[in-house]
Amino acid sequence: MTIAPSPVAPATTTDQLLRFENVAMTFPNGTTALSGVSLTVNRGEFVTVVGPSGCGKSTLLRIASGLTPATEGVTQVDTSRIGYVFQDATLLPWRDVQSNVELLAELNGIPKKQRTATAKEAIDLVGLSGFEKHLPKTLSGGMKMRTSLARSLTLNPELFLFDEPFGALDEITRERLNDELIRLFTEQQFAGLFITHSVSEAVYLSTRVIVMSGRPGHIVDEFPVEFPFPRDPDIRFTAEYAELCGKVSHALREGHS
Amino acid sequence: MTTTPPAPPKVRTLARSATVRKAKNRTSTWLPPLLVFLGLIGVWYAITFLVLDEKRRFLMPPPHEVVAAFFDPATFVEIMQALGRTTLVALVGLAFAIVIGVLWAVAMSQAKWVERSLYPYAVVLQCIPILALVPLIGFWFGFEYPARVIVCIMIALFPMVSNTLFGLQSVDPGQRELFQLQRAGRWTILTKLEFPAALPAIFAGMRISAGLAVVGAIVGDFFFRRGEPGLGSLLSTYTARLRSAELFATIFVAALLGVAIFALFGWIGKRVVGKWYDFSAN
Ligand SMILES: Nc1ncnc2c1ncn2[C@@H]1O[C@H](COP(=O)(O)OP(=O)(O)OP(=O)(O)O)[C@@H](O)[C@H]1O
Ligand SMILES: [Mg+2]
């Protein structure tokens, strides 16, 4: 297995940012979470992954980020600028919004002045200006998630990994943040790999939906999504959208049994 | 598409209602203990005058005699000087216990094998009756100031070790991974993540240790009784001379010292981490 974050970033040679080939993951306790997963994420793509709980979706992201090495197959990552948004906001409760957003730059040794500016910009991007001095415990769930997003944005990622980031939020906040995310995606030009439990969210956000089976997880189907960006919220009420959601749900049910 | 986050809450109204609530809280926290206190004084008088006959009244002198004894100029000076010495021993012992305890716990948090090697000794320290070691400490370190501080440290150390270790290890795994993803080094993780996250637990430990440090200071003094007398020496002197009113006064001063130090460290903890950490669970 190779993880190759190419240091010289030959951006012009290929559009590919992430490639899994026959990736499998068996944990030391014998649980096989993934088997034979092959998937490529290119520049300009926003790929969403749906699959039953416990099928190895989080594991797939952890492998992509380098947190856990896969036990089999090839994992190739063609950028060193990876953003990773967890299901929880994972903010440090003793730091205010500004300094939470600065954290990653700080860990990378970016000078104070520069990271203050970068963080400020990211905070503006997620619509949190005015809340710089607020501590996490005074923020709503949605605002915490925005802070977490801003924190990853400071890395100016080329590849953005999302592990059910809005799963714990209410419907209205979730839809709002989906639109924010689409705006960021069109403005910031990162590629996304986004995990969700919600078929509707998967279709709404993505250029391609991947459907995974139950454990051991493998890819059972994929659906390109052709709606233009930035997405019009009203596509949710069109027949094509409903049809696509239906197909994804169907594939999900088939893969589950 | 942009969304405007909700406007910051109106601070004024919020603050005012918080104050009202706080004032109410205060009465409800102070009133019941105060009533109990008055009740106890009543029981005390009853025992002194109704249960004990005159010859045995020295076993429990009435509250006003205790107060009078305390404010007798000679006794007052004696007790205050002893209080000063005991407080000094307790604070010095506590300071050592905090430093040693935190370093010990940090060392254990850095590697499983260090923890496996050192934690049993922390537990042993907690389990052996320190009183049994006190004479030995006297032999080795003399019967004066250093020995008292050492007794104090030994009694106050364990809560610092166990609380700090617990705090360092209770860091959220997601936060840990956040640091790992940036390839943060061990020192960075310790100083920017583990240590701040452990602060509430460290302060909780400090509060317990502070109370124990007072116990340690008095116990050491009670046994060694050489050098300048602290509260412990005073207790044994008054007992030996059957000066029960003074004995009671000293006991109360010792109790107040314990409470004051406990409260002081509770307050410091709140000042340092109360802004982001909710202590109200305790
Ligand atoms: N460190 C580990 N050791 C052993 N088994 C693990 C470990 N991490 C995950 N697993 C197992 O691997 C499987 C996949 O886990 P994973 O967290 O990737 O699922 P998921 O698809 O993200 O589920 P969910 O949708 O509920 O978040 C699960 O059965 C889980 O119990
Ligand atoms: Mg998961």
From TrEMBL, chain A:
GO MF annotation terms: ATP binding; ATP hydrolysis activity
SMART domains, alphabetized: AAA
Domain ABC transporter: 18-239
Keywords: ATP-binding, Nucleotide-binding, Transport
Keyword Secreted included in the entry's annotation: no
InterPro entries in the cross-refs: AAA+_ATPase, ABC_transporter-like_ATP-bd, ABC_transporter_ATP-bind, P-loop_NTPase
Gene3D superfamilies linked to this entry: P-loop containing nucleotide triphosphate hydrolases (3.40.50.300)
Pfam families: ABC_tran (PF00005)
Name the record gives this protein: NitT/TauT family transport system ATP-binding protein
Source species of the chain: Herbiconiux ginsengi
From TrEMBL, chain B:
Membrane topology: Multi-pass membrane protein
Gene3D superfamilies named in the record: MetI-like
Boundaries of every ABC transmembrane type-1 domain copy: 83-269
Keyword Cell membrane: yes
SUPFAM superfamilies: MetI-like
Example GO biological process: transmembrane transport
GO terms for cellular component: plasma membrane
Transmembrane region(s): 30-52, 88-107, 119-142, 149-168, 197-224, 245-268
Pfam families with a match to the protein in the record: BPD_transp_1 (PF00528)
Subcellular localization(s) per the UniProt record: Cell membrane
Chief subcellular location: membrane
Cited InterPro entries: MetI-like (IPR000515), MetI-like_sf (IPR035906)
Keywords: Cell membrane, Membrane, Transmembrane, Transmembrane helix, Transport
Entry keyword annotation includes Flavoprotein: no
Family per record: Belongs to the binding-protein-dependent transport system permease family.
Name the record gives this protein: NitT/TauT family transport system permease protein
Species: Herbiconiux ginsengi
Taxon lineage: Bacteria, Bacillati, Actinomycetota, Actinomycetes, Micrococcales
